[in-house]
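quick one, two chains, predict together pls
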Amino acid sequence: MSAVGGALGRTARAFRDVGREVRIDWSPLAWLVVAALVVAALVPIVLPSSVGTDGLADTGYLALAAVGLGFAVGIGGIPSLAQGAFVGVGAITAAHAVDAGTPALAAALLGAALAAVGGLVVGLGLARLRPVYVVAATWLATWLFSVALGAFPSLSGGARGLVVAPESILGLTPTPTMHYELALALVALAVLGHHMLARSSFGLSLRAAAQRPAGAAALGVPIARVRLIAFAGAAAVGGLAGGLSVQLAAVADPQAYDSWLSFKLLVAVLVGGAATTLGPVAGVLALGGLSLAADLLANLTGADQARFGTLLSALLLLVVLTIGSDGIVPALDRLYPRSRAGGVQPLPGVVSQDGAEVDASGLAKRFGGVVALRSFDLTLRGGRVAALIGPNGSGKTTALRLVAGTLGPDAGRVSLNGDDVTEASTADRARRGLVRTLQNDAVFPELTALENAVVGASLRRRHGGAFRALIASPKARDEARLTRARAMAALETVGLEAQADRLAGTLSGAEQRLLMIASALATEPSALLVDEPSAGAGPIELERLAALLGRLRERGLAVLVVEHNLRLVRAIADEVVVLDAGLVLATGTPDDVARNEGVRAAYLGRRQL
Amino acid sequence: MQVTLQVVVTGLAAGGVYGLVAIGFSLAFRLTGTIYLAFGDLIGLGVFTTLLVAAGTGPVTQTNVPVGRFVLGAVLGVLVCVVVAAGGYLLVVEPFLARGSTLGWAGGTLALAFGIHALLDSVFPRPAYVFPDPIPFRRVGESGFVTVAGATVQVRALYVAAVALFLALVVAWIVDRTRVGRGLQAIAADPEGARVVGVPATWLVPLAFGLAGGVAALAAITAAPSAPVSVETGTLLGVKGLAAALVVRFGSPLLAFAAGAALGLVEAAIANVHVAGAQLGPAYSTVIPLALVLLVLALWPPREALEAIE
């Protein structure tokens, strides 16, 4: 009894928390969305004639599929041309299931499940591919599906399609009005889910991977996995839309799921605004308006409506793309600029690291006939800063990549706290506490500074996966708060807390480098590899950088800096490793190295350390 | 044996056209890193322009068109294809290259494709059209068929395969041996560097797009009288050409042509050859190769297809 009472109390508290958060985040736009939803729900009731209600319901299901695609395209950065095929998988599955006596809703869910499986299969193949190959592969997949439907009449019902007997849904008669209200509710839920996921650390990781894959990989984001989840999720939503709309139409017409449907959904997403939550819905509404215009034109000229519709949609997309617009919703957004939600409190003492021991021995790498690194040894200890210097082309960055795991060595081994990690992936090393920053171009320009750091901090999340973020479970929300606090603390460490809400792309070059270090720190590393932090830094920034590296040493991190600026090296390094032509020329304190005859001859003869 | 030779010739005739489309996809990809999704419908535009000039929009039989009018139609068809292919590049590909926007060129080329498709559909609404044949192949042999080593072979198929091969050799010669071709190779290897050393990329790239479109359209027009054509014919040619180009990783013209020819052969084989006593039939002839291409890409993606994470 008391256990039940306790659970109820916890639930009530969780709901109060949610209520408070919703009140804080509530904006005029949210009121607008709610009002639009109420008006939309009343449409078939207020309008007396049921004429056009089935068209409205169909548009609703189209919007549902578009919201799914919008997430894959806009958040996941996956240029998918296959969403129509997944709608088709859901529709055909549901049609067969209803025929076999499955209840209507179960049949639609079965369609969604099969579409998700299809999304997983296709997604497995393309999660690691470059966008241009994703375009090719998804286009061919769409055609494969529609050709297969044409080739196998037993599957698709041939030219007549599969007849679907109307079944009651949740005990309600499946009138067009009922379908319309159901579609509206599902679109609202999908938009809400999109909103939750896009802001979650899962969504931020996806966006980071879309903007700068190399930077995301360096922070340990499992790129292929998050993309696969996004793609399959989008396919499932498309499948659900197909499974329901086929019951509205009462027939599964195989020609309705060809490449045109995929294109139409993409047009909706791009015209409405791929990166925004409401964009796909706005795009579907725009296409709906366009088809009314096409009707009008067709009546005037006596030509076929469908062709005008196609032509106008193609033209609309061309216009939107050519004027360089990012869609209707972003354009409206700019009319009413909103301030971003600030007020994240850093979590003092959260970013505290224990130093690691990194040992590399005998690392070698050749590219074709060129030996980049002959033999490289390195030892990093907690609380010490090592610097790797050497002339251009001496193999510094290659050495760094081998230690960080973005490149596999031809020979040698790397160990972290005594464990052999030579074969471990970058992401795996990052999880174990060995993280590197990239030389350039690795901040995520369209995320804020805080969100950049959140991508790093997500590496330590345990409950914030896609599903928990979607349903906003208490654990996921607690962890989201913690992750943001951690990210804020990392920003504070590098002195960027005042820039937390600025887009990373608008920061100065030196600030972007600091931000990269902050994102790496947010992963709570025990060993940090920093590539050329001083590039482009002025005297003041150099001082800031030296102070920062000093702070990291005090915290007990093991730090390796690849540097050109010998003044900085002298100021902060406890140990210097000099590389020349792929070999370690000297190792020692900055003073030792400066006195070393061989180093002077080979590298420092021209300069004074 | 008889069946085999017949299948080979039929397959090569279809495959030759796929091969020229594949050359177009490869050239476009190597020059700009994009996939010109409008290629198929562009070719359809060329074929139907020819039909419009040669025979109007009504139903035609294969014999009632004067050769002069057909030649005029073919020239116009190829010309339209060259102009629209090059113009399409300038309109829907080039603006998005600088912005690095995949969605931009993908959406743009698709919009071009569906725009052309809708336009053709409204002028040629019938599900299939008989394409006039300027050359009286029917009078050769036994109503167009000759018997070679005991196998019956369609003369027209031989002719189409030969024309396609010839066109592919011409494109390969242009790319490998001429000044224009060397300029294109320089752009493919390093667009910025090519510009710096004075390769006129501003007009060479649209020229290459136009050339690729024109050559593919010429092959498609040559092949068109062999079977009834529909607006969908061009679109499907585009899909198969892309599949072939993908298999050889958008390689050299001859490689892309070989891949297209091989695809045609495989399709013909699947449609006609008995496997373990059972005939697969035409239903499988497009499905199986497309599925295989996707499977190969998924399981053994070429290195350059993988996203760089360093």
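Chain A is about 60% helix and 10% strand.
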